[in-house]
């Protein structure tokens, strides 16, 4: 039996389908990211799981039991909000103890658990502070400790890091991974930051307009997306037109063949090929590489890698990220040769 | 004119204004100890007999004081309760209807009391509540709602209402959420709201004059009647009592606050 199953959940706001037939199966202990652009329905799904909105149709099964009718306070799902929503009148310890007091744990057990949670999130020395005396990152930790203290079945996180600056965000990403590992709790993590989803999750479900367009491991989604939306949304990407006749591909102003795992084996009049900026090399490359000529239209210095805006003879433009040792500013305006390994090229039909 | 003289002049003007504000109020104190039997300054010595006459059952000061205290306390409790229920509800769920009801609640601030009084006389006479405690209570609660509501809404304004959602996800039920999450955060607002409602009821006169007669007489009404049909210095005595009580409360509060602030900064 599956741990948590979302079964064709639909939620409408008037004519708008905020969730459109969403299905998702979650294994116990997984770290799943719900990734998608703004307004794609991620928060709506999370709020439905927590019980704060009532879906129009569909089921949510926990251990095989439909929990749709259960009130939020009876679901035992932890929730971490973007703005933390800490209780301002309670100290750090008081916030963490709140769900335990509500559950009428005895005082000794509460004290022990609060200590344990404070150690887990590294806030022992700040236990008596009030939330307004804490930094954003520290408040975030309190919110996490509070939502984890009572041993929730699932931890729901709605863009918990979006209010933090970049350095702190990266630090908190590592922290969240560690918390996930140490507690073994199932994490459902909403984000619109694709980098965050790629680095943190066991699995990603990509949302678009109220639907899950694709789900899978970060590697699978990044290396072989099956939809243009995912190919474009996860990581940077370039798209050019291509076609296949008698097993030979045409594209990038040249012809080449693709390895089996990339090629469906059928000829196609027109298809879309994609190639990530980081997979493009300078020069003709090795035997078997696809090499092509393009004009450098723009040059942006970027430290170790410079970014080049290229234009093919066909007029199609794309971006390459090339090691700074190989090209310099004087490449601007020149026709140069670039290459890519065939395995790096993807096909969308 | 040098800066110094200008400064002195300014200070003089400020003091003049302060005295103008306060002196007429203080005049009740000497008048209350007059040795005459009419409102006047003491001439041949001072006498406390007018204070003694305040407790004279024939004069009715004590029952009116009790009535006013009763009405003001009941008003404070009810107005604070109703205003808090509405303010918290509107804070948790937003939408068009809280704004509509808010306007209705604040309307006593806009409608002149005299017009409200005319309406209330008709309503209360229909339900035979004219000149009763309950009639006065209803009217005073309505009149105090705006103040109580504004005080409570102000204390909710900078609270994040997702606290409620968070508390629910942590397993708290509505009563726990109100008692452990909302109440501790709005307690000062509730106290301020109750205080304002108390004051509103305590010195309400316009509408009260219309809806009471001889049965349920409030203190302001008693003072009003005494000033219109007699010149008994007991009036000055009751005014002095109220004045001194109010000053005592204010001074105590200022001292307490000062100590609180010092304790806070020492920490
Ligand atoms: N209470 C509501 N009433 C009407 N429409 C709503 C309501 N809540 C959400 N929506 C709509 O539902 C859609 C999905 O919203 P949702 O908040 O789930 O998006 P999201 O993926 O979380 O976006 P973001 O990344 O911006 O948080 C949006 O178009 C939004 O406008
Ligand atoms: Mg959202």
Automatic annotation (TrEMBL), chain A:
Keywords: ATP-binding, Nucleotide-binding, Transport. GO terms for molecular function: ATP binding; ATP hydrolysis activity. The keyword Nucleotide-binding applies. One of its GO terms (biological process) is putrescine transport. GO terms for cellular component: plasma membrane; protein-containing complex. It comes from the Bacteria. The keyword Transmembrane does not apply. PROSITE patterns: ABC_TRANSPORTER_1 (PS00211), ABC_TRANSPORTER_2 (PS50893). Residues 4-234 form the ABC transporter domain. SMART domains: AAA. Belongs to the ABC transporter superfamily. This is ABC transporter ATP-binding protein. The lineage of its organism: Bacteria, Pseudomonadati, Pseudomonadota, Alphaproteobacteria, Hyphomicrobiales.
Automatic annotation (TrEMBL), chain B:
Keywords: Cell inner membrane, Cell membrane, Membrane, Transmembrane, Transmembrane helix, Transport. CDD domains: TM_PBP2. It is a multi-pass membrane protein. The chain crosses the membrane at residues 12-33, 69-91, 103-121, 133-156, 177-199, 234-256. It comes from the Bacteria. The keyword Transmembrane applies. Residues 65-256 form the ABC transmembrane type-1 domain. One of its GO terms (biological process) is transmembrane transport. Belongs to the binding-protein-dependent transport system permease family. This is ABC transporter permease subunit. The lineage of its organism: Bacteria, Pseudomonadati, Pseudomonadota, Alphaproteobacteria, Hyphomicrobiales.
């Amino acid at each position: 039996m599956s741990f948590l199953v979302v079964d064709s959940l639909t939620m409408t706001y008037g004519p708008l389908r905020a969730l459109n037939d969403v299905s998702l199966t979650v294994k116990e202990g997984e770290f799943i990211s719900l990734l998608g652009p703004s307004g794609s329905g991620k928060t709506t799904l999370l709020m439905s799981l927590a019980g704060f909105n009532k879906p129009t149709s569909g089921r949510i099964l926990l251990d095989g039991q439909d929990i749709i009718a259960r009130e939020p306070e009876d679901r035992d799902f932890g929730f971490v909000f973007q703005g933390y929503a800490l209780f301002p009148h309670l100290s750090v310890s008081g916030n963490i103890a709140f769900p335990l007091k509500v559950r009428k744990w005895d005082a000794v057990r509460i004290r022990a658990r609060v200590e344990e949670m404070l150690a887990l999130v590294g806030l022992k020395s700040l236990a008596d502070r009030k939330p307004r005396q804490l930094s954003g990152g520290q408040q975030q930790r309190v919110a996490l400790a509070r939502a984890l203290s009572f041993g929730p079945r699932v931890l729901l996180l709605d863009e918990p890091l979006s209010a933090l600056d970049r350095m702190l965000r990266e630090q908190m990403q590592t922290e969240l991974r560690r918390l996930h590992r140490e507690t073994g709790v199932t994490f459902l993590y909403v984000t619109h930051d694709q980098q965050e989803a790629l680095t943190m999750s066991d699995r990603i479900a990509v949302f678009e307009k109220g639907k899950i367009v694709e789900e899978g491991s970060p590697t699978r989604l990044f290396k072989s997306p099956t939809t243009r939306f995912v190919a474009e949304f996860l990581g940077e990407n370039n798209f050019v037109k291509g076609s296949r006749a008698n097993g030979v591909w045409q594209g990038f102003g040249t012809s080449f063949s693709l390895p089996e795992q990339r090629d469906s084996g059928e000829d196609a009049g027109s298809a879309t090929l994609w190639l990530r900026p980081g997979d493009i090399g300078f020069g003709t490359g090795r035997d078997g590489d696809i090499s092509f000529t393009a004009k450098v239209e723009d040059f942006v210095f970027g430290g170790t890698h410079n970014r080049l805006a290229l234009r093919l003879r066909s007029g199609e433009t794309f971006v390459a990220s090339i090691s700074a040792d190989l090209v310099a500013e004087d490449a601007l305006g020149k026709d140069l040769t670039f290459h890519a390994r065939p395995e790096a090229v993807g096909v969308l039909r | 004119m040098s800066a110094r003289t200008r400064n002195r002049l300014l200070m003089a003007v400020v003091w003049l204004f302060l005295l103008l504000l306060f002196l007429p109020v203080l005049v009740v104190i000497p008048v209350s100890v007059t040795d005459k039997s009419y409102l006047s300054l003491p001439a041949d010595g001072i006498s406390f007999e007018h204070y003694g006459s305040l407790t004279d059952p024939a004069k009715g000061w004590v029952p009116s004081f009790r009535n006013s205290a009763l009405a003001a306390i009941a008003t404070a409790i009810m107005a604070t309760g109703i205003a808090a229920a509405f303010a918290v509800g509107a804070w948790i769920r937003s939408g068009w209807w809280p704004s509509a009801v808010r306007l209705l609640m604040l309307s006593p601030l806009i409608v002149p009391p005299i017009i409200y009084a005319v309406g209330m006389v008709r309503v209360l006479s229909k339900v035979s509540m004219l000149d009763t405690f309950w009639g006065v209570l209803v009217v005073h609660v309505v009149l105090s709602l705006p103040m109580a509501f504004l005080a409570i809404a102000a204390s909710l304004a900078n609270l994040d209402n997702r606290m409620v959602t968070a508390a629910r996800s942590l397993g708290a039920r509505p009563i726990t959420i109100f008692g452990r999450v909302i109440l501790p955060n709005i307690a000062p607002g509730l106290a301020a709201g109750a205080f304002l409602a108390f004051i509103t009821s305590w010195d309400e006169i316009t509408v009260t004059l219309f809806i009471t007669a001889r049965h349920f007489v409030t203190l302001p009404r008693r003072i009003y009647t005494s000033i219109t049909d007699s010149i008994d210095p007991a009036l000055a005595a009751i005014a002095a009592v109220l004045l001194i009580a109010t000053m005592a409360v204010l001074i105590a509060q200022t001292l307490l606050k000062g100590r609180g602030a010092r304790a806070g900064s020492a920490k």
